[in-house]
Amino acid sequence: MAATSEDTAIDVRDLRMRYGTNEVLSGVTFSARRGEVVVLLGPNGAGKTTTVEILEGFRGRSAGEVSVLGVDPTHGDEAWRARLGVVLQSWRDHGKWRVRELLRHLGAYYAPYSTERTRRPWDVDELVAAVGLSEHADAKIMRLSGGQRRRLDVAIGIVGCPEVLFLDEPTAGFDPHARREFHDLVHRLADEDTTILLTTHDLDEAEKLADRIIVLAGGRIIADGSADELSRRMSTDAEVRWTRDGERFVHATQDATAFVRDLLVRHDSGISDLEVRRASLEETYMKLVQRVESGLGDEEAVRAFLRETANQEVTR
Ligand code: ADP
Fold first, then answer.
1. Which of 113, 124, 191, 235 is surrounded by the fewest CB atoms within 10 Å?
2. Given the CA of residue 43, which atom of ligand 1 is nearest to it?
3. Pocket test for ligand 1, best of 16, 22, 51, 52 (most atoms within 8 A of CB)
4. What confidence score (pLDDT) does residue 313 get?
5. What is residue 95's predicted lDDT score, i.e. its pLDDT?
6. ABC transporter domain: which residues (predicted)?
7. Which one of 15, 16, 19 would you pick to mutate in the ligand 1 pocket, going by the greatest count of ligand atoms within 8 A of its CB?
8. With a threshold of 0.70, does the pTM exceed it?
9. How confident is the model at residue 233 (pLDDT cuts 50, 70, 90)?
10. How many whole angstroms separate alpha carbon 251 and alpha carbon 12?
11. From the alpha carbon of 59, which atom of ligand 1 is closest?
């Protein structure tokens, strides 16, 4: 395959995966730059976990080219693996270990892979603080709450200071406070040039975290762009709301600016609570996925989507 540039952390071309006769991925193409946060969205069974596991090197593929940090994951060695972070589900078998102790133990495996550019492992106390577990650093793992255990999972995933981090539903089981802290941590990691690929069902989370959102459905990418781009492309109409003489009005229009200008000319002083709103990511996403699930064939759904979206590239 073409040499990947220094700046490309993940490169996937025409990835296909079949389980028996069931084709789960039918030609997926995308790439991610260093420091980019890419969110994979899609309904259950869309192939998100399969895609992530192929990139992690935990699963083979049927066809296509895949490169993570310039290496084909099927041939990734220890040194390559040390540059990746994977957040797995809870470490239940390690219940008797204490938080700090386990992180120090696991971190030691990464020390030989420390480089000038990336020091490994993460300092244990700093790491424990970064995931909000300082108060529990000496607690046994079996004494942690569900949410604390998920924080520990995240700590284990990043103890080696990964250049690429894979997170499969990272905040499932987090309370709002833990979620906010986790989002701050993701931003911090991205600022330090970590590439992050995460799957989530939480559209609000996708909107907050993603530089780019990739929507998978029916085995292919049906949309790829920032949350804002996706909303703009999907919704030709914006919604204008206002209050006049104590009465609330709503109007859908393609040209909100012209409409508002006219409205203010006509009723200048009588208008209050003026709002202009585009479709939320959630509305956009539901619309997209419904198309694919509505009985339209995949091809037809993608074409229908394309008709509505200018400049949208869809990978076949
Ligand atoms: P997602 O993470 O988007 O929910 P998955 O990648 O887990 O989707 O699954 C995609 C499809 O592949 C599903 O239909 C699932 O049943 C199927 N699948 C996943 N793993 C296997 C497997 N090991 N053997 C057969 N089918 C599988």
1. 191
2. 3
3. 22
4. 40
5. 82
6. 10-243
7. 19
8. yes
9. low
10. 43
11. 23
Q: Note the pLDDT tens digit of each residue in 63-77.
A: 999 999 999 999 999
Q: What is the DSSP letter of 121?
A: S
**Atom 14 (ligand 1) nearest CA:** 45
Which of 25, 39, 49, 168 has most ligand 1 atoms within 8 Å of its beta carbon, as the pocket-test mutant?
A: 49
d(CA 222, CA 294): 14
Q: Are 33 and 195 in contact (CB under 8 A)?
A: yes
257-315 tens-digit pLDDT: 999 999 999 987 889 999 998 767 777 787 777 777 776 555 555 555 555 543 434 33
* pLDDT confidence of residue 243: 94
Q: Whose CA is nearest to atom 16 of ligand 1?
A: 45
Residue 100 φ/ψ region, left for φ over 0, alpha for ψ in the -120 to 50 degree band, beta for the rest:
alpha
What is the CA(114)–ligand 1 centre distance, in A? 35
Measure the CA–CA gap between 281 and 254, rounded to whole angstroms. Answer: 18
Whether the CB-CB separation of 204 and 193 falls below 8 Å is answered with no
Amino acid at 253: T
Measuring from each residue's beta carbon to the nearest atom of ligand 1, which residues come in under 6 Å? 19, 24, 42, 44-50
**Residue with CA nearest ligand 1 atom 11:** 45
Rounded distance, CA 213 to CA 37, Å? Answer: 9
Ligand 1 centroid, distance to 236 Cα (angstroms): 34
Burial of 60 (C-beta count, 10 Å sphere; 0-12/13-18/19+): exposed
